[in-house]
Amino acid sequence: MPENKAQDQLLTPEETAARLKISRLTLGDWLRSGKLKGVKVGRLWRVRESDLEAFLKEGEK
Predict the structure, then answer these.
(1) Residue 46 belongs to some domain of the structure
(2) Residue 18 falls within a domain, yes or no?
(3) What residues make up the domain containing 44?
(4) In the chain, where does DSSP find H-type helix?
(5) How many CB atoms lie within 10 A of CB 50?
């Protein structure tokens, strides 16, 4: 995880879904269930790039 959180990019659900090659609806399910860690900004979901990387590394195990 990056030491400097200020430089940790926030990805939109569309960007995250595209990187994972999944649908936006599947991503929404994963965010709501906690399978993928995300943050709510008002009503909108965002995914930290470091959380996405951690999720991908966990899947490699």
Answers:
(1) yes
(2) yes
(3) 10-60
(4) 13-20, 24-33, 49-60
(5) 15
